Amino acid sequence: MAKRATRLEKILNQLEKLYGSQKPVGPADAYEMVLYRNAGYPQSDERCTKGFEALKKKIGLKPEEIVEVPHKRLAEVMRAGGMIPELRASRLKEIAQIVSSEFGGDLHSVLKRPAPEARKALKKFPTISDAGAEKILLFTTAAALVALPSNCIHVPLRLGYGVERKNWAASYREAQEAVRAELPEEGDAYRRAYLLLKRHGEELCKSTRPRCEQCPVSEECAYYRKTRGGT
Ligand code: SF4
Prior knowledge:
The protein is mainly alpha-helical. It has helices at 7-19, 30-37, 45-58, 63-68, 71-78, 85-103, 108-111, 115-122, 130-139, 154-158, 168-180, 187-203, 222-228. The site of iron/sulfur cluster (SF4) has 13 residues, from helix 13.
């Protein structure tokens, strides 16, 4: 007998009807994902893509290319990705140095480690938190971990997956556990959830002023019930 869909699976089906099937944006290689994450600021797919493409075209992605280019030139190129180009240039150099000196020039060996060890290694890189490391492990298919989009964590929380805490990391963990409980233990299911929740957070369920009147899952939403007096 077919298993009944969980509440979260029904929500994701509704979101997929609205937005269509989602594809990840950006590179699929772990080292390049770390560069990509640091190529734009304030962080967004658009700015990171612009910064990453400028880096690839004008300097190259190999660690030695990034280590050797003068900082000033790298910062100029990083203007394509938005603000604080000097700081992002320093971070890219740090990434290239770490990957060369500690990991032999790429992160393939890191991805073969048990997930907790791989996560710890990835967190050595600038701006890579637990959430960022888990995203890399999930999207490189190194580990089937639930990862949630760090800039859209409010989406599962509003839908009733976890409770918002003062501490962001605690909110993230709660949402992560609640989402995990309603999905099959499969990387494909976790990637689909990540991408649809992210898209919803960027389109309708924005962090400020969500467009609840257009939302296909408002009937399921705890935030909507609380703020708009839904039943
Ligand atoms: S009803 Fe509003 S708050 Fe709830 S998921 Fe939809 S857009 Fe977000």
